[in-house]
Amino acid sequence: MTDHGTLEAQFEAHRAHLNAVAYRILGSQGEAEDAVQEAWLRLSRAGAEGVDNLGGWLTTVVARVCLDLLRSRTSRREEPLPETEPSVGDEDAARPDAELLMADSLSLALLVVLETLAPAERVAFVLHDVFELPFEEIAEVVGRSPAATRQLASRARRQVRGAPTVSDADFTRQRSVVDAFLAAARNGDFDALLRVLDPDVVLRADAAAVSAAAATRGAPALANETRGAASVAGAFKGRAQAARVAIVGGAVGAVWAPVGRLRTAIAFTVVGDRITGIEVVMEPARLAQLDIVMLGA
What we know:
elongated, 297 residues, 12 helices, Nuclear Transport Factor 2, Chain: A, Butyryl-CoA Dehydrogenase, subunit A, domain 3, 7 strands, alpha+beta
């Protein structure tokens, strides 16, 4: 496998599988493609001499790249698991749950749940429960013993199974309402804001958000609590110019993250096609506790 053309052809034969692995770990097609490209660069530099199972080798490389990407995008601290064997009857012995992740798609609802996992948990769960890799191989990726890796997957599985079930249809509906709200706010369209706000909507803002609004010249005042559609629309009219849609705490919301640094999170409560509640969070300690998943345009 020293010929570059032959090596590239063999890599291409594994590309679809590698993309599937990377996408299910990362939840981002763009990042998945970057991870696969990095695997090709490493293979082209090192060659495949002495590699008996090229597909397995590439899967390990892609998984390690994905793990590094997950760790770089979150400040979550991973706590080491005890190096002990799981008890007899542990659910890891069960057959992987194919219904958790379909082979051809990653649902937005499940993506939200996966984002709550620590990076090593997510990698162990996806590689074992979706792609059925043995724990001995996954252990090499996450840098744990096979027993600790088994516990990583087990803990992730319990969290996935115990998470509230939210359908993709609900997320789509929430996204439509939030998109309409943000567009109306940016355009200063008071009437459009009223159309997506419940008459009894409640807006709550933490102390940091109230202070920031007061310090911003020309910005509408922001109170700790504002009630009623007209008052809330007035508070947001002309705002949210740089806000991006994101999953905030398991529901569709918005964030402001200049230069990639999270400064503001806005959580929405959507009932039907109206917003009944809005919470603006700027206090760093509270922001650090939120699970955020950025959404594309």
